[in-house]
Amino acid sequence: MVCEKDPLVQKITDLYDQISTLDSLKPSKDVNMLFTQLVLTCMPPTHIDVTKLCKKVQQMRSKLIRLCSEAEGLLETHFSTILASYDNPLHHLNIFPYYTNYLKLSQLEFNILTKHCSNVPNKVAFVGSGPLPLTSIVLASFHLKTTSFHNYDIDPSAKSKALRLVSSDPDLSRRMFFHTTDIMDVTNGLKEYDVVFLAALVGMDKDEKVRVVEHLAKYMNPGAVLMLRSAHGARGFLYPVVDPCDLRGFQVLSIFHPTDEVINSVIIARKFPMPKHRSAEHPVGPMKLPNKCFDIDMLNPLLNHVNLMEELDIEDQLS
């Protein structure tokens, strides 16, 4: 069990102590410096498994994830407001400091999706899109150019800010829709989507995440695809970790763990067909594991022939 005496944990705890005493998490010199240090500390591959942390460190990690979530939301709000001041906001997305990361992550998610789906999705839902829905914008602009995107966020101001970014674009304004809705209140509407993306910070602890996944398992169309963002190693101090065992009702197809500046891991899973002996009220079945596979060739355009990602086979992940 990893405790607070571990050197890496000590460094992360020290940064947490400094971040938690800040007067505000809005973008500023101090906020940017501390979170940059935190990300750089958590980025390299490490021996740490955040599920095996002692209770004291687990509590710190839980609080740190919520601070990261708040800071990320404020950062996106800040830049969404700036972008909205331009006549064509989408022409200036590169002012967002992590735009390149979103380009890489969206390319990765598109590659994974096309590997496991033979058809271009007609309708996609993105849950937890926020005030700066870069994943939807990048996927719709560069990869899924005929797909309609339905973006869900619980915050009304997120919807209004996001809508301003795409309203002046003749293409995306027709294909991107925004809903101020708790996804837990969406039931039969989920059956419309071929693919559902679940943002990393929807469900910031294990119980919350499991409840959301169970809801999606109940109402998504059988055969539809779920794309989730997770975290691996010390990156689990920044984002919640999704345990593949918790994806009941879905077949996990692949798990990718980046080792570059793209922080989030990506999990793709498919909703099981409805078993004949189960009712519509109880669609969740036992988890089925895919065959062992390892395929990195599809990532070459993204990786420039440098292996920055590893695809775990699911049996190893669960052993």
CATH 2nd-level architecture of the largest domain: 3-Layer(aba) Sandwich
Shape: globular
| Main sheet characteristics | 8 strands, mixed
Physical arrangement of strands within the biggest beta sheet: 3-2-1-4-5-7-6-8
Q: Supply the number of helical segments.
A: 10
The quaternary state of the protein chains shown equals: single chain
- Outline the low-pLDDT stretches: 276-319
Summed over residues and divided by their number, the pLDDT gives a mean of 87
Number of domains: 2
Instruction: Note the beta-strand portion.
Output: 5-15%
**Beta-strand segment tally:** 8
CATH superfamily grouping of the largest domain: Vaccinia Virus protein VP39
Distance between the ends? 17 Å
- CATH-defined topology of the largest domain: Rossmann fold
Helix content: 25-40%
**Text of the CATH class of the largest domain:** Alpha Beta
Family: Belongs to the nicotianamine synthase (NAS)-like family.
Enzyme class: transferase
Keywords: S-adenosyl-L-methionine, Transferase
Function: Synthesizes nicotianamine, a polyamine which serves as a sensor for the physiological iron status within the plant, and/or might be involved in the transport of iron.
